[in-house]
């Protein structure tokens, strides 16, 4: 028999409302979503959870018709409706069934028992016992229930579940929770009582115990867990590592949710070989357009530091960004500093912040006003050198730049200018300082412009003025070692530039192994002229050599920076060919290029540098290939046609298929191709590496990385890792041995570190160590392939 009634469905909907918030303890503050990322649908292995119902939107409204069927319906004189035998209720995608359901029309009490089953788009609920609910008070209770979340392996059971849908409170007594498949319960989380208030950010659990099989391994009398997309103060999971340098290293962070737009993390860190450190991270966002982070570390006494001058050890890092007037006006700050003589802070303590480039810590603040056709910016920049007896780079105090652009149908115009004040606070190396004014107007005219070919001419005027302060006691490092002994107090330099660049593009249809392809041929040529002017009377403030590659062949600069503008009477030529398959996936790219100097350039970076005698530049060759969906290949070489030697080169071959990855790579840089290095004991850089991620079987996976210096025969970095990944838990082990640099002695010593990490899926992880991925401490895994998919 089929009946239509709304009361029973209303009652059942009340019962199910709370089950969207089944407890799942996780990071008390770090999680910004109410369901942990590793608990979401699609993250868990489908081999274990193919029977988990998918999550769907609940299709329910007050007007949705309700269909009730039962073997028998009885109506009593006291206002009760009794459904018996195969009771089934359908409304939208909601479904309920039981052996017996009774509705008291007077008290509005509903009672059901026997094979209770409920399912909607979010949860499945079962009970062999009984369910009671009151439609007036909207309170419900179900005994001996099991639940399964949809779209998630999270499931559990409770001896008693009480729901007050009016107050939106859910209480589970003697509850259990796991993400393991049925019959494979490797772990359970049990609690004597669990309370969830849907109006609150966090739920609560008392007498919570973590069980591995039948063995209790962790107990806490009280825990909280997130039920909303909000944060709450509390302890985060501790992390630990072990290394030969620091010993056993434990961090126990505490998160303080000060306000929705302010928070702080305080982390005591204990290293058995060194001592105790305090780490503080403060984040703020007073307005959506303004945000920043202040991070500090402080260590009162490092037992491994022999010199008292380095104690205490500390680090300060500030990052801030602001924008005003709809983003037209912007201000940014990036500041990182350690103690003046603490050269090995980053090598030994590995802070999570700060950018180091060539052993330099950056301190910079920039501000600018940006419009469509022009911008005005300013920057103040300083550096901290993390090497002893090394001169500091010049500071910007400040630099102001103005740039303007205009594009018309028959020409385009640009104007770049700057005013820079260079200082230097090096106490050991007395340095020159100066001011620089530079203006650079340019006009570009397209001579030919059509599909398949183009020809463009550009004219530019580069006018620069220097006012330099050369102290009488300037360090011999600048005058003798670098050869800057003819600096002038004021210098004016005006240089014109003329450049013509043309390119063509051809394509043709071809085939290989009966597969259609499109091949392109894209030749290009450029002529560049800049007259010679002696610039040895100008100091080096922010200028260095540029690495040579194919794209630099068509640049108008040999040096990065304005302190040296090289003369040029050069023709550059090159070509690129590409191969595309029928789906327009680029399968091959090959470039070849070189330049020819009609007159050899005379400007050098340093006065004592040897002038170029080879009329031809390095021959640049680059090739990228993606022959199949699994294989990637890359090679790039700069070849000196005069000495018949390779100046620099790199290559990589990678195979990827599902969870399997392997890569062989190599890089070489000759000492003659170093940007700036005045030491006499330089060696070529010649390094080979290999990385692999190997799934052994369904549960086991291995990773490894090995990098070796082929010149010295020394290992640079070695990493081994293993992961056991079952349906609902995993364990990672990593071992790494790398050459840890010592900036004080300019040497490296081997350091060993290892970590063990347990992960209970849907619950969190315990322990930490070297990250379980292909990145090593010194050389991160990268994919140097430049193809368009």
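^ Assign residues to that structure.
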């Amino acid at each position: 028999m089929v009946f239509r009634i709304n009361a029973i469905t209303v009652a059942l909907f009340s019962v199910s409302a709370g089950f969207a918030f089944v407890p799942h303890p996780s990071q008390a503050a770090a999680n910004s979503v109410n369901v942990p990322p590793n608990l979401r649908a699609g993250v868990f292995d489908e081999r274990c959870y193919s029977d988990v119902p998918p999550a769907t939107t609940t299709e329910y409204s007050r007007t949705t018709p309700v269909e009730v069927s039962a073997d028998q319906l009885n109506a009593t004189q006291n206002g009760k409706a009794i459904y018996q035998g195969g009771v089934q209720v359908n409304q939208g995608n909601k479904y309920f069934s039981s052996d017996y359901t009774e509705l008291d029309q007077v008290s509005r009490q509903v009672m059901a028992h026997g094979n209770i089953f409920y399912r909607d788009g979010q949860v499945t609920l079962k009970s062999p016992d009984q369910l009671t609910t009151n439609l007036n008070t909207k309170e419900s209770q179900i005994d001996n229930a099991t639940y399964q979340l949809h779209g998630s392996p999270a499931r559990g059971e409770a001896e008693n579940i009480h729901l007050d849908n009016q107050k939106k409170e859910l209480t589970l007594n003697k509850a259990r929770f796991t993400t393991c498949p049925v019959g494979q319960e490797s772990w359970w989380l049990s609690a004597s009582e669990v309370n969830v208030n849907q109006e609150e950010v966090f739920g609560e659990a008392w007498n919570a115990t973590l069980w591995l099989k039948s063995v209790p391994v962790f107990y806490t009398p009280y825990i909280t867990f997130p039920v909303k997309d909000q944060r709450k103060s509390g302890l985060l999971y501790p992390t630990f590592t072990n290394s030969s340098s620091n010993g056993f290293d434990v961090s126990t962070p505490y998160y303080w949710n000060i306000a929705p737009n302010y928070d702080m993390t305080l982390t005591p860190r204990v290293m058995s070989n060194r001592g105790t450190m305090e780490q503080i991270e403060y984040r703020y966002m007073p307005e959506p357009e303004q945000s920043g982070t202040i991070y500090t570390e402080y260590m009162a006494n490092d037992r491994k530091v022999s010199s008292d001058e380095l104690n205490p050890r500390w680090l300060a890092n500030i990052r801030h960004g602001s924008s005003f007037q709809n983003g037209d006006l912007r201000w940014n700050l990036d500041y990182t500093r350690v103690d003046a003589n603490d050269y090995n802070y980053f090598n030994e303590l590995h802070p999570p912040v700060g950018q180091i480039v060539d052993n330099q810590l950056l301190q910079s603040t920039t501000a600018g006003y940006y419009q469509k056709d022009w911008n005005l910016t300013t920057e103040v920049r300083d550096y901290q050198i993390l090497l002893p007896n090394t001169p500091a780079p010049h500071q910007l105090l400040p630099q102001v730049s103005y740039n303007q652009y205009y594009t018309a149908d028959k020409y385009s115009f640009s104007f770049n200018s700057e005013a820079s004040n260079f200082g230097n606070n090096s106490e050991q190396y007395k340095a020159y300082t100066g001011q620089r004014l530079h203006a650079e107007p340019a006009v570009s005219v397209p001579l030919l412009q059509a599909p398949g070919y183009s020809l463009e001419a550009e004219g530019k005027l580069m006018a620069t003025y220097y006012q330099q302060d050369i102290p009488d006691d300037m360090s011999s490092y600048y005058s003798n070692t670098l050869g800057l002994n003819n600096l002038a107090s004021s210098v004016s330099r005006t240089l014109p530039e003329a450049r013509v660049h043309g390119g063509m593009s051809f394509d043709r249809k071809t085939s290989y192994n009966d597969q259609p392809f499109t091949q392109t041929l894209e030749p290009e040529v450029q002529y560049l002229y800049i007259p010679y002017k002696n610039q040895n009377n100008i100091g080096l403030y922010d200028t260095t050599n540029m690495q040579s590659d194919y794209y630099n062949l068509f640049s108008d600069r040999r040096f990065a920076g304005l302190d040296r503008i090289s003369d040029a009477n050069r023709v550059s030529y090159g070509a690129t060919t590409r191969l595309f398959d029928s789906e327009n996936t680029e399968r091959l790219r090959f470039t070849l290029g070189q330049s020819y100097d009609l007159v050899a350039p005379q400007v050098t970076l340093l006065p004592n540098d040897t002038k170029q005698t080879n009329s031809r530049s390095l021959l640049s060759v680059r090739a990228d290939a993606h022959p199949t969906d699994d294989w990637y290949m890359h090679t790039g070489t700069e070849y000196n046609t005069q000495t018949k030697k390779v100046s620099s080169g790199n290559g990589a071959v990678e195979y990827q298929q599902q969870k399997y990855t392997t890569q062989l790579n190599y890089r070489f840089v000759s000492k003659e191709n170093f940007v700036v290095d005045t030491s006499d004991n330089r060696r070529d850089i010649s390094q080979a590496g290999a990385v692999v991620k190997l799934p052994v079987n369904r549960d086991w996976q291995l990773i490894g990385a090995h990098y070796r210096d082929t010149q010295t025969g020394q290992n640079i970095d070695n990493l081994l890792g293993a992961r056991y990944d079952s349906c609902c838990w995993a364990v990672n082990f990593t071992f790494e041995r790398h050459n840890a640099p010592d900036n004080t002695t300019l040497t490296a010593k081997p350091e060993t570190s290892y970590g063990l990490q347990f992960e209970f899926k849907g619950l969190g992880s315990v322990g930490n160590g070297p990250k379980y991925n292909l990145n090593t401490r010194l050389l991160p895994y990268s994919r140097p392939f430049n193809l368009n998919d």
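The chain is about 5% helix and 55% strand.
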